[in-house]
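@channel sequence for tomorrow's demo:
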Amino acid sequence: MMSGSPHAPEGGPAVRRFGSRLRGGVGRAGPTGAAFALAALIFVATALYNPGFAGLRNLQQMSIFATFIGLAAVGETVVILAGGLDLSVPWLMTFGGIELGKLDKVAALPGPAEVLILLAIGVAIGLVNGIGVTKFKVPPIIMTLAVGGLIEGYLLAVGTLQSSSSSVPPIANQVAHGKLGPFPTLLLLWLVAAVVTVVVLRRTALGRHIYAVGSNARAARLSGLRVERVRLVTYAVAGLTSTLAGIVLSGYLGTSYLDMGTPYLFPAIAAVALGGTAIAGGKGSYWGSVAGALILTLLSAALPLLHLGTADLDIVYGVVILLGVGATKGLVGRTGRRHPVTHPSPGADASSAHEPMSGQRERSQL
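structure tokens (generated this afternoon):
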């Protein structure tokens, strides 16, 4: 007899069913899907506000800027997945850019040989980070910051910063400014790096070991995995990709200087977090980091259209990252994706039931 609710039996359940399906679809997409959806939303909204935002030239420029973040985020992603953290990224990028110009002047080697030498040095620096963290048990934040300070001191001490207009070898310029059809060469380089990273993480034993170590280091060690070696490899990868990012950045800028890598420390970590990778390790995907790099690039290109300054950009970055990370974690929680509780089987060692918590305590000490 309630005359005010004739539509409740039809509209109410239908709307609730639609909302449930929508949430379920986004939830099934996971953090990576949510991050790509956020990037698409920012792009569409900005393109509607300013149609020129979707122009070919602007898209090419944004893809180049995203490449620098994405390459730096390759190493950061694998390090974080294994339960570590690398804050030496900006100094490795600066090292790659400055030392390429110096090596070209001093050795006059073929361009590819110079790049390979610098990448090998980048791997060696990454191994130094890894040895400090794994062998000497130095916390990753302290170790990587210390190595970054050493790199900066070296660059200043050897007098490589004679001017801000140091020459850049032709190979770096060619890669940075080349195109294959409408696609910048840098974008294709990033795509190759992304595919290789995803394949290694998802299809190889090393990738499975990285996830296992980041998820529960103690359990991985008891299973026979060499935890220190796995983490050592991740820091070596970070050294390689950060140095590569610095090389191509110097080619794009046409110069190299001391602070050239500094603006990429925050975006590299933020891209990983925005993509849904767990900062504690063991969960995430590089495709999520790709989405995070796109989000940060779109924001940096879109917000100036609203006449916002650098301070406003930093504030918006922080708010969007908090909202994005919170939203992706909330979606995963609502879909019921929780780590299963492990119970010891009959006759098994009862202490094995507590290994996940012990692994978490071990990660918290890193």
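heads up for whoever presents: Residues 343 and 353 are 5 Å apart (CA to CA).
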